[in-house]
Specification:
The complex is a heterodimer of chains A (about 450) and B (about 425).
Chain A lengths: L5 H15 L6 H21 L4 H17 L10 H11 L3 H42 L2 H12 L3 H30 L3 E2 L2 H26 L9 H27 L9 H7 L20 H33 L3 H13 L1 H12 L3 H30 L8 H19 L3 E2 L1 H19 L9
Antiparallel strand pairs in A: 1-2
Helix pairs in contact in A: 1-2, 2-3, 4-5, 5-10, 5-11, 6-7, 6-11, 6-14, 7-12, 7-13, 7-14, 7-15, 7-16, 8-9, 8-14, 8-15, 9-14, 10-14, 13-14, 15-16
Chain B lengths: L1 H11 L24 H12 L3 H18 L9 H11 L3 H42 L2 H12 L3 H30 L5 E2 L2 H26 L9 H27 L28 H33 L3 H13 L1 H12 L3 H30 L8 H19 L3 E2 L1 H19 L8
Antiparallel strand pairs in B: 1-2
Helix pairs in contact in B: 1-2, 2-3, 4-5, 5-10, 6-7, 6-10, 6-13, 7-11, 7-12, 7-13, 7-14, 7-15, 8-9, 8-13, 8-14, 9-13, 12-13
The chains are: A mainly alpha (about 450), B mainly alpha (about 425).
C-alpha cells in the first residue's frame, strides 16, 4: 500500500468496518486498523523530517483518526455539542435531554476503548484493575453528578436499571442471537457462579436496610438505615476488593480454559481470542495519548451528564414519562449500548464466556462497587444516599437475580433462555413505566 | 492403674479444646465399641480387692479427670458460679449476663462430649439419634427457660440467631481458614447431603414464612388465633419431616453421606476418627444429667438477666438474642468446624454447621412451639417480618453458595461479611410494637 494520505487508509478501514457494523471495540477492527495504520505511520514517520511539530501533528491526526473516526457509532457524536447549544440558546429541555442522552453513547464507548488501550501498557493485573474500576465509568460519572444535585432516587434507580439491563437485556439478547446461530452453547459455570454469589451478597446488602425501614423496626426511624447502609457499603467494598484480589492473583487459573475472570477484567484481550490468529493486539495510541484521551472523554461525559441530570425532570414532564422509567430503563440502555453490541457479537461468535464476563461482570461491578461507592461518596459530600432502594426496586432486583442465577446455574444456553430473559426485561420496564415513588421524588 | 492413667492422658492430648462434635451421627464411626482402658484397669483392680469404696472413688477420680480437667475450655467454668454470686449479691445484670454466658460455654462443650461418649455405647443409629436430639441441647434448654418466663421473642430471636450464626459465621470462618490453608485449589465436599439439608432448610423457611406473611398481610380469619393454630400444625408437620430425615440419613440412604475421599481415607486409619470411649456408659449418662442440670441453672440466670443487660449496655434485646447468645452457645462447634476445615475434611464441617442449622430449624423450633402449646404459652412461628426476611435471604444465599460442592477462602470471606451485615442490621433493630 503506497498511498500516503490518511484518506486511503480510511477507505480500507471503512471496508473492514462494513463487516463489523456498530461494534467498535472488537479486536478484528483493531487489528486491521493497526495493520494499516502502522504502515501509514511508519511511512509518515519515515517520509517526514524529524521536526517535532510535524511529528506532533502527525500523531494528532493519527489519534483523531483512530479514536474519533475509527468507528461508526461516532456519527452520533455531534448530538453532544448540539445538546449543549440547545441548552444555552433555547428552552426545549426535553430535546436537550434526548440529545445529550444520544451524545453520551459514543463517548462512553470511546472511553472503554481508551481504557483498554491503556491496559495494554500497564500489564494484566493493573489492566484488570483499570477495567474493573473504569469499566462503568459512564454510570459512575452520571451518578456522581446526580448525587451532587441531591437527586438520590435518580442515582439509585439508574444504578439499579444498569444492573437489570445488564442481566436481563444484554444477556438475553446475547443468548438469543447466539442461540439462533449456534443451537446449544456452553459456558464455564465456575466463574459465573462466583459472580452470582457476589451479586447475591449485594442483594443482601441492599435488602436489609429496606426491610429494616419498611417493617418500621429500626431504632431511630429514618436514621438507622442510613448508618446501616454506610456500614454495609464499607463491607461490600471490602468484599469487592478481595474479589479482585482473588481473581487477579490467587485463583487465576481456576477458570481456565476459557478464562472468564481475566476476560471480565481484560475485556477482549488476546488470550481469550483464540480463533483469530496471533494475538498480540497492537496498541494504536501511545500510553500518554490514551491517558489524555481518557481525560478528555471524561470531561465531555461529565459535561453531558450534568446536562442530563439537570434536564431529566423537565424531560419527564414534557414527554409524560415517569422519572423512574427514564432512570431505570432509558439511561442504562444508552450507557450500556457499546457493551450490549459487543456482548451480542461475542455470543454469535460462540464465545459465550466473554459475553458472560461482560454482562454479569458488569452487573457485579455496579452492585458491589459502584453502589457502595456512591453511598460512601454521598457520606463524604454530605448527601443522605443510602442502600434503601425502596421496596419495589429491591424486590425487583431480588427476583431478577434469582431468575438469572437459576438460568445460569447449569452452564448452557439457547435462544429460548435468551427470549425468556428479554421478556422478563419487558415486564420489568413495563412495571417501571407505571411506577412512581409513593411519597413523591426526594 | 498408673498405666491406665497414662493411656487416658495420651489419648486425650489429641482432643484438647475441640470437643468431638455433636454431629448428627454422619461421620463418626460408631462401630467402635472398645472397652475403655480405665474400666479394664478398674475391673482388674476390683478383681484383686473388694473395697468398693476405693473402687468408686477411683472411678470418680478418673471420670472427673477425664471430663473436667482435660479440656482447656474448662478454665471458664468458674465464671458460672461467679455469675450466680453476682446475681444474689449485686444487681448488676450486665455482669451476670456476661458471666453466665461465658460460664455456659464450657458446660455446653462438655455436654456435647458426654453425648458423644455415650453414643459409642449405643451403636450408630441410637448414637445418631442422640446427637440429633442433644446436639443443640444448650439452645433447647435456654429456649425452654425463656419460654417459661414468657419471653417469646427472645426464644424466636435466639433460635434464629443460632441458625444464622451456624450458616454464616461458622461456615464462613471454616471455609476461610480451610481456604487459606489450602491456598491454591478449591476444597470439595459432598454435594448430595448438603442438597438434602438445603431442601429441609427451605422447608423450614416456608413453615416460618406463612404465619408471618398471613399476619402482615392482615389476611387471616378473624376468630380464634389463626397464626398460633397454623404454627402448631406446621410444627407437627416439621417434626414429622425431621423424623423422616433421621430415618433417611441413618438408615436407608447412609451411602449418600459418604464423604468425598480425596487422598486420605478417614474411616479406616488410626487418626482421630478411631476414638475409644473414655468413660463408661453409666458415667456418661451421669455426666450428661449433671451437665444438663448445671446448664439449666445457668440458663435460668442468663434469661433473667437479659432485659437488665440490654438496658445497662444500651444494646437492643434483639442484638443480644440474635448475635451474642448464639455466638457463645456455638463456640465449641465453631472451633471444631474450623479445625476440620483446616484438615481438609469439609464434609464434617458441613455436617456440623449445616446439620446444626437444620436441626434447630426443623427440630428445636417446632419442638419449642409444641412445648409452648403444652405449657400454655403462645409461642408461634410468626417470627415477625424482619427476622423472617432475614432467614429467607440467608438460606437462599447459603444454599446457592453451597450448591456446586466447592469451597475457597473467598466464599468464606463472603459469608463472614454477610454475617457482619446481618449483625449490623440487628444492632439497629427493635420490634415495632416495642416488645
Amino acid at each position: 500500500m503506497t498511498e500516503i494520505p490518511q484518506f486511503g487508509v480510511r477507505k480500507d478501514i471503512d471496508i473492514d468496518l462494513e463487516k463489523e457494523n456498530l461494534v467498535s471495540s472488537s479486536s478484528n477492527v483493531n487489528r486491521k486498523i493497526a495493520f494499516q495504520t502502522s504502515q501509514v505511520s511508519s511511512l509518515v514517520n519515515s517520509s517526514s523530517s524529524s521536526s517535532s511539530t510535524n511529528q506532533f501533528f502527525n500523531r494528532l491526526l493519527i489519534n483523531i483518526q483512530v479514536v474519533i473516526f475509527g468507528t461508526k457509532i461516532n456519527t452520533l457524536l455531534p448530538f453532544g455539542p448540539l445538546a449543549i447549544v440547545l441548552h444555552y440558546f433555547s428552552n426545549r429541555n426535553g430535546l436537550v435531554f434526548l440529545f445529550s442522552l444520544i451524545g453520551i453513547a459514543p463517548l462512553a464507548e470511546r472511553l472503554g476503548y481508551a481504557t483498554e488501550q491503556l491496559a495494554f501498557y500497564t500489564g494484566p493485573t493493573v489492566g484488570g484493575l483499570l477495567n474493573a474500576t473504569f469499566g462503568n465509568a459512564t454510570e459512575m460519572i452520571i451518578s456522581i453528578c446526580a448525587l451532587n444535585n441531591g437527586m438520590i432516587r435518580v442515582v439509585q434507580q439508574s444504578l439499579l436499571g444498569s444492573i437489570l439491563s445488564n442481566m436481563l437485556l444484554v444477556l438475553g439478547c446475547a443468548f438469543f442471537s447466539g442461540g439462533i446461530v449456534h443451537k446449544n452453547q456452553v459456558f464455564n459455570k465456575a466463574a459465573s457462579v462466583a459472580n452470582l454469589g457476589l451479586l447475591l451478597m449485594a442483594v443482601m446488602g441492599l435488602t436489609f436496610p429496606a426491610v429494616l425501614y419498611y417493617t418500621h423496626s429500626e431504632i431511630h426511624f429514618g436514621k438507622s438505615e442510613l448508618s446501616l447502609s454506610r456500614f454495609s457499603s464499607c463491607v461490600m467494598l471490602v468484599a469487592y476488593v478481595s474479589h479482585l484480589f482473588f481473581t487477579l492473583k490467587s485463583h487465576k487459573d481456576l477458570h481456565n480454559p476459557d478464562n472468564i475472570e481475566s476476560t471480565i477484567l481484560h475485556k477482549e484481550s488476546g488470550d481469550a481470542d483464540k480463533e483469530t490468529s496471533n494475538e498480540d493486539e497492537e496498541v494504536l495510541i501511545t500510553r500518554w495519548e490514551s491517558i489524555i484521551w481518557l481525560g478528555v472523554l471524561t470531561i465531555f461525559i461529565s459535561a453531558l451528564s450534568g446536562l442530563i441530570v439537570n434536564t431529566i425532570e423537565e424531560a419527564s414532564v414534557s414527554t409524560n414519562i415517569p422519572v423512574s422509567f427514564i432512570s431505570v430503563v432509558l439511561l442504562p440502555i444508552v450507557g450500556n449500548a457499546a457493551e450490549h453490541a459487543s456482548a451480542i457479537m461475542f455470543a454469535v461468535k460462540n464465545k459465550l464466556d466473554i459475553t458472560l464476563g461482560v454482562a454479569i461482570g458488569s452487573s457485579t461491578q455496579i452492585s458491589m462497587f459502584l453502589i457502595p461507592l456512591s453511598v460512601v461518596v454521598g457520606w463524604i459530600i454530605g448527601k443522605p444516599m443510602d442502600l434503601n432502594f425502596q421496596l419495589f426496586e429491591t424486590v425487583t432486583l431480588f427476583i431478577t437475580v434469582l431468575i438469572v442465577a437459576f438460568m445460569l446455574q447449569e452452564g448452557t444456553s439457547n435462544y429460548f433462555k435468551g427470549l425468556v430473559l428479554i421478556m422478563c426485561y419487558l415486564i420489568v420496564s413495563a412495571s417501571f413505566f407505571v411506577h412512581v415513588d409513593p411519597t413523591g421524588n426526594h | 492403674m498408673g498405666s491406665a492413667g497414662e493411656n487416658i492422658v495420651l489419648e486425650l492430648e489429641e482432643d484438647d479444646l475441640i470437643e468431638s462434635t455433636p454431629v448428627i451421627g454422619k461421620i463418626r464411626n460408631f462401630q467402635i465399641s472398645r472397652v475403655p482402658s480405665s474400666s479394664i484397669a478398674i475391673a482388674s483392680l476390683s478383681s484383686s480387692s473388694s473395697f468398693s469404696l476405693r473402687r468408686a472413688s477411683k472411678a470418680i477420680f478418673s471420670s472427673v479427670n477425664t471430663v473436667v480437667f482435660k479440656a482447656k475450655m474448662n478454665v471458664l467454668i468458674p465464671f458460672g458460679p461467679l455469675a450466680i454470686f453476682l446475681h444474689y449479691l449485686t444487681g448488676k445484670h450486665g455482669w451476670v449476663f456476661f458471666f453466665s454466658l461465658i460460664g455456659i460455654t464450657p458446660l455446653a462443650e462438655r455436654l456435647g462430649y458426654a453425648t458423644e461418649q455415650l453414643a459409642f455405647y449405643t451403636g450408630p443409629t441410637v448414637g445418631g439419634l442422640l446427637n440429633a436430639t442433644f446436639g443443640n441441647a444448650t439452645e433447647m434448654i435456654i429456649s425452654i427457660y425463656a419460654l417459661k418466663s414468657g419471653m417469646i421473642r427472645v426464644v424466636q430471636q435466639s433460635l434464629l440467631g443460632s441458625i444464622l450464626s451456624n450458616m454464616l459465621l461458622v461456615l464462613g470462618c471454616a471455609f476461610f481458614s480451610g481456604g487459606i490453608m489450602h491456598y491454591k485449589k478449591d476444597q470439595f465436599f459432598n454435594k448430595a447431603g448438603v442438597a438434602v439439608n438445603s431442601g429441609l432448610l427451605l422447608m423450614a423457611v416456608m413453615g416460618i414464612m406463612f404465619p408471618a406473611v398471613l399476619h402482615s398481610t392482615h389476611s387471616e380469619v378473624q376468630y380464634g388465633n389463626p397464626e398460633l393454630s397454623l404454627s402448631r400444625f406446621s410444627s407437627c408437620i416439621m417434626l414429622v419431616a425431621y423424623a423422616s430425615y433421621l430415618v433417611f440419613q441413618l438408615k436407608s440412604h447412609r451411602s449418600l453421606y459418604n464423604p468425598i475421599d480425596e487422598d486420605v481415607e478417614h474411616d479406616s486409619d488410626g487418626t482421630e476418627e478411631e476414638e475409644a470411649p473414655l468413660i463408661t456408659q453409666w458415667e456418661a449418662i451421669i455426666w450428661l444429667s449433671l451437665l444438663t442440670i448445671l446448664v439449666s441453672i445457668l440458663s435460668g440466670f442468663l434469661v433473667d438477666a437479659i432485659q437488665g443487660a440490654s438496658e445497662s449496655m444500651n444494646m437492643p434485646v434483639a442484638f443480644i438474642s440474635v448475635i451474642l447468645l448464639p455466638i457463645v452457645g456455638n463456640a465449641a462447634e465453631h472451633a471444631s468446624a474450623i479445625m476440620f476445615a483446616i484438615k481438609d475434611k469439609l464434609d464434617i464441617t458441613l455436617g456440623v454447621a449445616i446439620g446444626s442449622s437444620t436441626q434447630i430449624s426443623m427440630f428445636v423450633i417446632p419442638f419449642c412451639v409444641v412445648v409452648g402449646w403444652i405449657m400454655g404459652e403462645p409461642m408461634d412461628l410468626n417470627f415477625q417480618l424482619f427476622e423472617t426476611a432475614t432467614l429467607f435471604i440467608t438460606v437462599l444465599v447459603v444454599a446457592f453458595m453451597l450448591q456446586d460442592g466447592t469451597a475457597n477462602y473467598f466464599k468464606g470471606l463472603m459469608l463472614i461479611l454477610c454475617y457482619l451485615i446481618v449483625a449490623a442490621s440487628f444492632f439497629l433493630h427493635v420490634d415495632p410494637d416495642d416488645n
